[in-house]
Amino acid sequence: MAGLLQGKTIIVTGAGGGIGRAASIVFADAGANVVVSDVAGESGLATVREIEERAGAGLFVKADLSVENEVAALIARAVSVYGRLDGAFNNAGLEQCALPLHELSTAQWERALRVDLTSVFWCIKYQVLAMMLSGGGAIVNTASSLGQVAIQNASEYISAKHGVVGLTRAAAAEYGSRGIRVNAILPGIIRTPMIARLTSDARFAAFFEKLKDRHPIGRFGEPSEIGEAVKWLLSDGASFMNGAAMACDGGYLSI
């Protein structure tokens, strides 16, 4: 039986590990040609190897998404290899600096906005240009539960993720009539290497344990669970989903 994404060409950014790697594998298992992108070459190639070991189709394209020309080249490579672009999961991003606002440097603020928000703008810009040539597609952007609420010591991350939600809705309003759906996924706390780095910081470890109580499901999420949710948003089964900020957070935003 054909998979939910059979024959579709889908770009995944930040695919060298965590949610991006897990999602890439989920998409490939569903029949997609997955264009794996990451700034870290070895990690990205490792994701492709995992896809190929499962008899899936994967291609690695190294790209620094904080550079517009590299974003454009990524989309161009995907189209040149597979002939079209059907979907994209714009997932790459930085973790928070774990500092109160008054201790953030301007450089830290600007880097967070550039990687976590401006790069998503560039991705959408070049992805819709490709999709309009082939009749449409679907884009999912990784925001966060912190794209709706706030915590302490994460002002640059929270600002960027709120921006991703707004950008998603703006793009959905512009391109829905052209056959391009744009949605956002809002993960709760997911057991990724990024979270492992934060929880190894004594300032954050106790805080994250308390956060578990904010997840009514009683645990943190797994990367593949986000991949499964995004798979549906990218599929034709989600054909009426456009401009949504879909929580996948174990109930974090419900309490």
Question: Any key phrases for this structure?
Answer:
alpha/beta; seven-stranded parallel beta sheet; 47% helix; 15% strand; globular
Uncertain ranges? none
Q: State Rg.
A: 17 Å
Q: Output the structural class.
A: alpha/beta
Total number of helices: 8
How is the topology of this model organized?
Elements: E1 9-13, H1 18-29, E2 33-38, H2 41-53, E3 57-62, H3 68-82, E4 87-90, H4 106-133, E5 137-142, H5 155-175, E6 180-187, H6 193-199, H7 202-212, H8 223-234, E7 245-248
Structure description:
The chain has 255 residues and is α/β, with parallel strands linked by helices. It has one domain: Rossmann fold (3-Layer(aba) Sandwich). The protein has eight helices and seven strands; from the N terminus they run E-H-E-H-E-H-E-H-E-H-E-H-H-H-E. It has a seven-stranded parallel sheet, sandwiched between helices. Strand 1, helix 1 and strand 2 form a beta-alpha-beta unit. It is globular, with a radius of gyration of 17 Å. 47% of the residues are buried. The model has no long low-confidence stretch (mean pLDDT 95).
